[in-house]
Amino acid sequence: MEVSEFDEQSQRLLQYAIACFLSISPYDVRITSIEETNSIKVAIELPSQIAEKLLDAYKEDDPELLQFLASFQILDLRSAVKMGTLKGSCICAVCGKRKHRGKACSKGHFICSDCAYSRQHCPLCGHSIH
Asked: What pTM did the predictor assign?
């Protein structure tokens, strides 16, 4: 596949497949870059605690993950930490903004402190936030 074939629809399919596997909002899966090398290299941004779950599933050849990503030929999946990114920040599942402070539900959905102030339960899954 060439970069020109990895169109917006393909990008959204990848974004939603990863989000569905991780039980998170697709807004928490952000495609940050697409490069063509010998294949297509796609960089995505995820909340750190959720990224670990994805990496672990990939390392263990999780059959559910493989099913979600069956439309793509994944050759490698690895973690990369970029210098200069905001350490400890996450994207709020409610307002969609990148924030440093907040709470999470038991499924890992991050809710910033502004949005969590008046909530006791996650608006995405209904689990209590802590």
From this structure: 0.59
